[in-house]
Amino acid sequence: xxxxxxxxxxxxxxxxxxxxxxxxxxxxxxxxxxxxxxxxxxxxxxxxxxxxxxxxxxxxxxxxxxxxxxxxxxxxxxxxxxxxxxxxxxxxxxxxxxxxxxxxxxxxxxxxxxxxxxxxxxxxxxxxxxxxxxxxxxxxxxxxxxxxxxxxxxxxxxxxxxxxxxxxxxxxxxxxxxxxxxxxxxxxxxxxxxxxxxxxxxxxxxxxx
Length: 209
Fold this sequence. Notes:
- It is a single chain.
- The chain has 8 helices and 7 strands, in the order H-H-H-E-E-E-H-E-H-E-H-H-E-E-H.
- The strands form 2 sheets. Strands 5-4-3-6-7 form a 5-stranded mixed sheet, with helices on one face. A two-stranded antiparallel sheet has the order 1-2.
- The chain starts with a helix and ends with a helix.
- The chain is an alpha/beta fold.
- The chain has helices at 2-16, 19-36, 38-52, 100-115, 130-140, 155-159, 161-167, 195-208; strands spanning 69-73, 79-83, 90-94, 121-126, 146-149, 172-176, 182-187.
- Helix 3 packs across helix 4 (100-115).
């Protein structure tokens, strides 16, 4: 009985509407559902942003990161000392899984970390809840990323001007050489794989080893 009523209602609706009208109604309904469900809204934003991402460019200005260290937290809450200048090129990404832009670029960050696992380290630095971050990383299989955590009052921000600057825009990334020179300084999300990124990485390896 219910099926028959629904079928009749659908037939009546189709007779009254053009194809464009039906499409418009369904589009409107989809938008309403997405707007009403936060997770759906975030997911749609992620896909939309990911489709428009471009590869980062190398900066012209010569900038060096300070040759010191900070204390951050591992996923299990233990203190760890991070040395900003390492023996290998390093990409520091300050982001949040609550940000659609961060989520949109994490896939490409992971691909970069996988491709250059022996030559570059990629850190995902965040003040998100560690359990939520690990759950997201495991679900998406972003196993090449190295998550580190900080608290808002952590000396990480107080001690470093560059960290405070990065904090103003989530996500923000710094790609540095093993001598501390900043090669890429990117505010906002980027596509971290492709020919342009490959050229930058290869140039870093050739010039600084």
